[in-house]
Amino acid sequence: MADTASWRDRRSSLETYFNRTAVEAWSRLTSDAPVGRIRATVRAGRDAMRETLLSWLPEDLTGRRILDAGCGTGAFAVEAARRGADVVAIDIAPNLIELAQERLPATLGQGRISFRVGDMHDPALGQFDHVVAMDSLIHYNAEDVTRVLAGLSERTSDSIIFTVAPWTLPLAAMHRVGKLFPKSDRSPAIVPLRPERLLAPVRQGTYHGMQAGRAHRVSRGFYISHALELVRS
Fold this sequence. Notes:
7-stranded mixed beta sheet; about 40% helix; Rossmann fold; alpha/beta
């Protein structure tokens, strides 16, 4: 269970940021509305990463239960549902969930989406075939991310797909500089992590029999994200 003090503190700041401070900017970023040059690279990077993660799932998801952990405005959940999946799409920010529901297409074919406000690692969410956490763990430290993955692995039959902000010199420098700003001026910091650190617990059985699978990095201007896969052996 990842309900540590550091997890709670960071979750609280993220909820405030995405539900109040950044909801309008996030709404524009995740739409086709015009955005500035920097945000355009982030949008392009997120689109590329979403396509990568979707490609790691079966083309036919009929009858599969999927957790979209940190679903934001629901773009990934919609695409998974269109493949037939039963998607539980959860986010800590009520305003983002409201926006996701407003954008929900009139028809999803055989799939369906249940939008929820809450914590991605809540055991009450039940069992899943696949868990996807796209850019929703990038604000947490390695210990908390490992705890979340360990908990989810107990309740996931096939695969967990997640992304991290990979440790690079520029990202590490930005993380250090961000700590110098007053709290009132900060957005929640992205925590650069070394992907191999999150995969090391595989050898200790921390992820309940899951093994390391594919990896892929997307870099588009100001967007850098590293996808990792845990698969049931």
